[in-house]
From TrEMBL:
It is found in: Cell membrane. Pfam families: MotB_plug (PF13677), OmpA (PF00691). InterPro entries: Bact_OuterMem_StrucFunc, MotB-like_N_dom, OmpA-like, OmpA-like_sf. It comes from the Bacteria. The chain crosses the membrane at residues 21-41. This is Flagellar motor protein MotD. The gene is motD. Keywords: Cell membrane, Cell projection, Cilium, Flagellum, Membrane, Transmembrane, Transmembrane helix. Residues 122-242 form the OmpA-like domain. Belongs to the MotB family. It is a single-pass membrane protein. CDD domains: OmpA_C-like.
Length: 244
């Protein structure tokens, strides 16, 4: 076996680090390629989105297809909110229209006789009931037929979400009844009596309000019996917009 000469030594490889460095550079390059790929904006998708938003909300126009950079029109927040409010108001009107038709149908005999009026305004649906249908003269207790009628109305309203305001009205003849000091008290108690029946019939109390108007806001002249009879009434208003 040949013996190594005393002066021979292993030659050290000083370029071994280049292999690790090359691997690192390759990985770093691959990382940046991937990052660039995922960050590239799909111009076509932006164009489709811009056109869809413009058509749906009345934007100023679709993005210019000939441009390299896509300019997406900004829709002001106020326009979007106005659009949502308009849609909500439309749905509310449709609900109230259907409710008015149902009320008119179930009260048809009283409507035909002129004792009940169903009207619609921007404020909502108003069910105006002549006091003679609900109470005896000078009294605030509901008659049995009136209770049956109002329970039918309450059955239609209890699953709705709109607020309900019940207003009592009288004519201008001073009341000569020891139970009520004035027409204010009579009208207020009559309104409260209707509200209590609604609540007992399943209408949520938070939706109900009672108002006594007395002889104020007449709908006819108090100069004759016909007009005074018309002014003695209870108005039930299903308020638009609430809970819609």
């Amino acid at each position: 076996m040949a013996r190594r000469r005393p002066y021979e030594q292993d030659t050290e490889n000083h370029e071994r680090w280049l292999i690790s460095y090359a691997d690192f550079i390759t990985l770093l390059f691959a990382f940046f390629v991937v990052m660039y790929a995922v960050s590239v904006v799909n111009i076509g998708k932006y164009t489709v989105l811009s056109e869809a938003l413009g058509d749906a909300f009345g934007g100023r126009g679709a993005a210019n297809r000939t441009n390299t950079m896509v300019e997406v029109d900004t829709l002001p927040l106020s326009n979007i909110l106005a659009h949502k409010r308009a849609e909500a108001a439309k749905r509310d009107r449709e609900r109230l229209d259907l409710l008015a038709k149902k009320l008119d149908s179930i009260l048809k005999p009283l409507v035909n006789s002129g004792k009940v009026r169903v009207t619609q305004t921007a404020r909502g649906i108003t069910l105006e009931i002549n006091a003679s249908v609900l109470f005896d003269e000078g009294d605030a207790a509901l008659t049995p037929p009136a209770q049956e009628t109002l329970r039918t109305v309450a059955g239609l309203l209890k699953d709705d979400t709109h607020g309900i305001e019940v207003e009592g009205f009288t004519d201008d003849t001073p009341i000569g009844n020891p139970a009520f000091a004035s027409n204010w008290e009579l009208s207020a108690v009559r309104a409260t009596t209707v509200v209590r029946l609604f609540a007992a019939s399943g209408v949520a109390e938070a939706r109900l309000a009672a108002v006594g108007r007395g002889a104020n806001r007449p709908v006819a002249s108090n100069g004759d019996p016909v007009g005074r009879a018309r002014n003695r009434r209870v108005a039930i208003t299903i308020l638009s917009g609430a809970g819609a």
